[in-house]
Amino acid sequence: MAEIAPFPGPKAADTPAANAQAAPQKPAASRPRDPRLDFYRGIAMFIILIAHVPGNAWTSWIPARFGFSDATEIFVFCSGMASAIAFGGSYARGGWLMGTARVLFRCWQVFWAHIGLFFFVAMCMAALDLSGAFDKSYIGSLNLKPFFNNTSEQLLGLFTLTYVPNYFDILPMYLVVLGLMPFVMALEKLHVGAIAAFCVAVWLVANPYMLGLGPNGLSLPAEPWSAREWFFNPFGWQLLFFTGFAFMKGWLPKPPVHWALAALAVAFLVLGAPFGSWKVFLWVEAANADLGAMIRKTYPLTSEWREKTDFGLLRYVHFLSLAYLAWIVAGENGQNLIARGQGVAAKIWAGLLAVITKVGQQSLAVFVFSMALARMIGVALDEMGRTAVTVPFANLTGFALIIACAYGAAWFKSNPWRRKA
Description:
The protein is globular. Helix 8 (181-188) packs antiparallel against helix 9 (192-206), helix 11 (259-276) crosses helix 12 (278-287) and helix 12 runs antiparallel to helix 13. It starts with 15 loop residues before the first helix and ends in an 8-residue tail after the last helix. The protein has helices spanning 16-21, 36-52, 71-131, 138-141, 145-149, 151-160, 170-179, 181-188, 192-206, 234-249, 259-276, 278-287, 289-298, 313-330, 344-361, 363-384, 390-413. It has a domain at 70-262. By secondary structure, it is mainly alpha-helical. Residues 1-31 have low confidence and may be disordered. The relative contact order is 0.14.
């Protein structure tokens, strides 16, 4: 993002007489929106839908099956970049108090999105079970029986975020990470190095194995009756969020495009795949049993480094490698994503880019909608059966619905009722 130049001091040409004689200036052309952020965030939304449909065969081909990181990293990293645009600007214009007020308002929105999503999905699962039309318990499939069996206690836990059921765990993580932003922006007044030290220190507290201090780091409890922690530990995942934030704010310089760095990233992704992906490991083991046996021995040694809950180091390096290659592919300011020419292929790509970008721009609304939609698609597949016809049909229908959600959310946000005739 280009820095804003300091406001120039008064000049002779700025006097009223000079201005009266000066020719009227044309307004500066608006700079085209960089498509990279919304494009990749939109891609993540489609992957997240696929990943959350129960028994979905398409999950065998999402990025999570080929390496250490997955679409969650895309979502969190891009959310950090988007937050730098939205909230970083508020801090710059209104100061720390006004910037923090806007962050708190966003936290309020995310909190109620989380609560609303939980109650809607819980209601749907209860309705399905009460109908008596199914030979399985959908409440049980999401492990929501503790909530229905002891509603009073779990209701309190739900609102205090001490009860965070699996499947409803990413928005609480995002909420806590947003809550760290005022501290990060306060540290900016000292030095950007203080921000880096803070983020790395918090990550190390969540990942003490890096310091040889054992596997159990700082985390938050997910349910009162067990030792289970939040599936997404915000103290680990904040490192990725603020990495994206730092790139967009200019605290970190944009990476240089160089063949050696690209080759290193590709080498890590390819050579690391059998160590980070069970699917790829099985391919390697089938091709060479001895090599497979050697790789299998490393799994216990790298379990903490691959950890998703606390965001292990290998996931971080893997995602940064992917992000670097995506940066190169997209080109400067996303120029390689923009369709050129008037041919049919260019028009098709322009349409796809517009749709994917729209989904990325409305990521919170689309995410909440898709999490509820995924369960309903799972129910439909239970009834229709999972075949070579029904699975693609279900996924493509889901894609169409989240696209409709994105355009609907954008329409409502535009306040069309306020437009003058």
